[in-house]
Amino acid sequence: MTIKFGTDGWRGIIADDFTFSNVAACAQAVADLTAERGLRGKPLIIGYDTRFASESFASVSAEVAAANGIHVLLSSTAVPTPVASYGVVHAGGAGAIVITASHNPPQWNGFKVKTQTGSSAEPAVTAELEQRITRLLAGNAVKRVPLAEAKKSGLVTIADLETPYLDHLTQLVDLPELRAARLKIAIDSMYGAGAGYLRKLLGGGSLDLTEMHGERNPAFPGMQQPEPIAHNLNALIDRVREERCSVGLATDGDADRLGVVDENGEFLTQLQVFALLSLYLLDVRGERGALVKTTTTTSMIFRLAELYGVDAFETPVGFKYVAPVMMANNALIGGEESGGYGFRGHIPERDGVLAGLYFLDFMVKTGKTPSQLIEYLYSKVGPHYYDRLDLDFDPAERQMIVDSFARPAPTEILGKNVVKIDRSEGIRLFLSDGSWLFVRLSGTEPVLRVYAESPGKEQSAGLLQVGKKLAGL
After folding, report:
1. pTM given for the model
2. What is the assigned CATH class of domain 10-161?
């Protein structure tokens, strides 16, 4: 088989292609690259989420790294991906392996690789890993030592990654002020690795906190997958409405993404949240720095950059593209349409827990509800409505869809002229009223994604149907 790293790591079906032997080959490739880059003397962080057998796959990765003479800091428990990423920075590590499939359905698991900065491995690194893994799968060069033996020799140390991370967050947000606020907050941890984190950070004060789905359940019952988007958050939406909560916050399976439900039980889109977090940093905290967005996220970022006199940069989809631009420009924030946001002063990686804290701080500092924050945002940048379709397809149809992206594009859509066409990641059409439509293939699963943003809700819905037809589905 061939192992390919998508927008954020390699993902596969458990016991089909995501097997112990394939994970061991991935770990061996990481160990070889670590040694070749002269980083063998630095610890390798290994974390994992709450999916089925994640701790076992993490142990296999630790056994392989230890057999190659690399000191491993193996998490003592399931942790969010940003906790493992911060662990690299805190320990001065060589990088990290994180066993997680993030937001994918329950039958999936995954293998993420982080660099010395804690960010996702760049395309050149993952391409190198893919080549090495292919050679390893063709031969039998994977080294492995039993975990008990590796622990005894000191090559594997069971580590508390959570405490340094929590201590760091206390330096970024005024937690005493948040704890003193009289807000009622519903938290949906989606059975994921982020369970308990917001509660630990915010508990002990005046806040009324309720956490849902905080236990481990790899089946993720009641949701299609642990992705914090509207159709997976029905229980949170109901809780907010029934208990008249001030806000609902949700983190995905590995807690690097955030979903927000307003005080009326309405889901805020990830594009709205990204724009709000950018506005919070610029307007409330008075910070200045570049804003970094992917192609699938909101054009409101360009307007905010113009209003506050900062630069804005656009990258392809995937935080592995966002992080280098953030670091090169000392950017204030980087974000993508999936609900992942990274912040200056932290790690160049997505963090749903910190994003949630910042969102709450925006509410507390301004005294506004989430819906009022949206009104405040729109008073500055104008209304922007976003929607998305995720369409499963037979892998045999993939080439047909790719071919559809090359066909001549329409010159007019819904009465608006097409003023620009971008085919770099699929097909993206820009319209004369500022609307845009984007059709692309997912980098991690057999899913076609159709995105649209426009000044009106009905227009966004209409654009999605046009995008579906453009792809021939």
Report:
1. 0.93
2. alpha beta
